[in-house]
Amino acid sequence: MTIAAVLTGDLIDSQGVENTQDYINQLRATLSKLLPLCAFSHELYRGDSFQLTLESSADAVRCAVMLRAALIAASPEHERYDARIAIGIGHAPESNHYGEAFVLSGQGLDGMKKETLALFTHSASLLDHLELPIAFAARIIENWTRVEAETWWLHATMNASQKALAEHLGKSQVTVHKALQRAEAPLIDRFLARSHEWITELAGD
Asked: What's the superkingdom here (predicted)?
């Protein structure tokens, strides 16, 4: 047995948008962009639902946040693309895709009501460290605009200066700086770094 991380999610209001198929296509495109950044295997089902099995459990929270950032950034004008994600962390057999992490993630998503990002694990220590910070991070992400999500995504993936980001986006450095401030980029970055450390500690126990 090993510690595994599974993300189970679905698109928010997939039937309420103008073009449901475009929404689903953007999910597929997002997963393709995400794959080189946090390795995983995945399944899509019911059209608008997905499950990711991560190669590294420590990447779980970062992968979930990046997935949502990329989806929001792909939103068309006057609409919002986003996903609810349940992060399941626990034991799982190495030989097949079943075990504690899969059950926790799947059942966790079924039980989520207004939450858009939540952790499910039997590790009391990990819950103590991560449950509240994840709730805070979820609230920040829920308030991201398309521009803020796109700016944070590029900040997280390009590892470039704000000047370079501004040049890439064709905007002023001041505009990029303000977008990252509104996105609470420094806090999100610190949170993701710490979540990686905490999950690594659990996996090493």
From this structure: Bacteria
